Amino acid sequence: MSDPYRSPEGSGTHTAPAPARPGRRNGLAVAALVTGVASLLLLWLWFVGIPLALVAIGLGIAALRRARGGAGGRGMAISGLVLGSVTVVIAGILVAVGVSILNSDEGKDLRSCVNNARTEQDRQDCSNRFNQDVGN
């Protein structure tokens, strides 16, 4: 019977393969990915999502620089950087749409109506009228 661990010379000794050398870890890359995902998920809380996106971009850039130096995690760094950037772009689009709606004639009517409303029911009527105007 043949021994798969027998050396080719037939001396009966065998050598184990060298253990894999652990690569340098890149914690910044992991942090960039985590903050990038969190920023996209928490964008609806703009005061949390936007700062997280900026942190993800910064960490992604730093992690890419570290990855160039031999540390791993290049893919995670790029993913965090892209997710943070996507969050900033989406936030910019939402702000632009919101500003354009509020500066429209319907938005100006809503602000005027709400400013002149005296009761909560009046404010609700303003909101309902605005929704009807925008829907038509």
TrEMBL record:
Residues 1-21 are annotated as: Disordered. This is DUF4190 domain-containing protein. InterPro entries: DUF4190. The chain crosses the membrane at residues 43-64, 76-102. It holds the Pfam family DUF4190. It comes from the Bacteria. Keywords: Membrane, Transmembrane, Transmembrane helix. It comes from Streptomyces subrutilus. Residues 28-93 form the DUF4190 domain.
